Each structure stands twice: as structure tokens, then as C-alpha cells.
Amino acid sequence: MLTCPGSAPKGRWSPIISLLILVLLISIGGCRKDNDFQGEISAEELYNTANSSLNANNWGRAIGAYKALQTRYPFGRYTEQSMLDLSYAYFKAAEPENALSTLDRFIRTYPTHPNVDYAYYLKGLVNFDQNIGFLERMMPARVRDRDQSMAANSFMDFSELIRRFPDSRYVPDARQRMIFLRNNLAAYEITVAEYYLRREAYVAAANRARYALETYPNTPQNSEALIVLHKAYTALELPDLAEGSMTVLALNYPDNYYVLGEKKPKSWAERLWPFD
Known about the structure:
This protein has helices spanning about 10-35, 45-55, 60-70, 80-90, 95-110, 115-130, 135-140, 150-165, 170-200, 200-215, 220-235, 240-250, 270. By secondary structure, it is an all-alpha fold.
């Protein structure tokens, strides 16, 4: 097949050309969004545009307007509130890194702001939302199988809110979320401990179960931690420790399936998700 001098075969270059066109379109779209806020626009107009876009759930336009406002009027009357609003827009636009960095900058810059409690609360929400994905919303029991670093960060953010601002209106919701996070952090430790049990890494299993009991006392997972301890100590031929774990389990959870010698019942979520 003949080709024009200097041209490449169609099959070879068409993906590259398509990619270049896509990049060009994205660049044009970005320029168009920036151009929306060119010219003489007052701080009040920018803020009203951003606020209207935020209320209309137009997160991209709200972010553009808030950023333009902060760039043009860094010390105006709308600066502080626009930073909080920008953080929320980033959160809703699924840009958690930008949301967290903006909130950290707000807390450092305005530590005595009357709404700084909201900044701590929103930080907790951002990290909380990263820990809870779509599958986890549908099947909450699977949250415990995920990496819990974001859950730990969220727990710390809410703890800081409650410590610094015990009378904040956001405290009741933060407390409820902390209970959820605490239970799932404990459940994660038990999930890891049970994994070690299945791999016959009994020392590691016992250590994770003991850590769960010490770090997250009075959670629904305490009984499972004691069961892991009994199994691990039995396998390690430490009868005194094994018997002690069973004694504590029987005293505190007399109706537990393990005490009664029954198999652990599976939840509906575990039946739908048969993977280890």
C-alpha cells in the first residue's frame, strides 16, 4: 500500500493522534473554564458565582471561581469563608488531597476563626469518605478488610474536634462516626489476626488480638479477640493462657457460639462475599 512521503501507517499512528486530540480538547476546556473568570470581576461577584455554583452542585465551576477569588483577592473579606467553601467543593468533587491540603492551610492560617471547628470536622469527613467506598456502602461488613489508615486519620480528626471544641454543633455527629470507626478498626485487627491463624502464625495472631483488646476495649469484636487468643495459645501449647482467655470469654459472653461449642454463624454479607 502506498503512503504519502513522511506519513506513517494509519494503524500505527492513529492512537497517538487520537491521544493528542484528546489532550488538546482537555486543554481547550481548561482554558475556557479559566476564561469564565477573566476581566474585571469584583470579589463579591466572584464569591456569589462560586456560592451559586456550590449550591447548584456544580463543583468544577465552584472550584474555579473560589480559586480565582483567592488568587485575585487574597486578603479580602471573602478570603476566609471561600477557603472553607473551596475545601467542601473539593470534597464533593472527589478531590480529597486538595480538600485536605486546603483545610490544613486554613487551620494553620486562621486557628482562631469562629468556624475552625468545621474545618476539623470536614477533615474527618474527607478521610471517613475515603475509607467508605461504593462496595462498602452496599456491604458494610467489608470495610474491615480494607487498609484502615484513612479510618485512623478520620478518627484522629474527629477526636481533635471533640478535644478542642467540645461544645461544637458537629460533635454529636463526630461521636457517632467515631463509634463506627472504632468498631471497624477493631474488626480490622481481628480480620488480620484470623488471617494469621489460618496461616498458622500463632504468635502474630495472638499479638494482633491482644492489641485489639488493649486499644479498642468494649467493642463488639472483644469476644472474637478472646477466641483468637484461645486458639493461638492452644496451638502454641500455652494451656494456662488459653484457659484464661476462655474463662474471660465465658464470663463476659456466656451465650457466645464458641463457648457453646457451635460453629460461627455467617452474616448475609459474608455469604454474599465468600472470599478470604
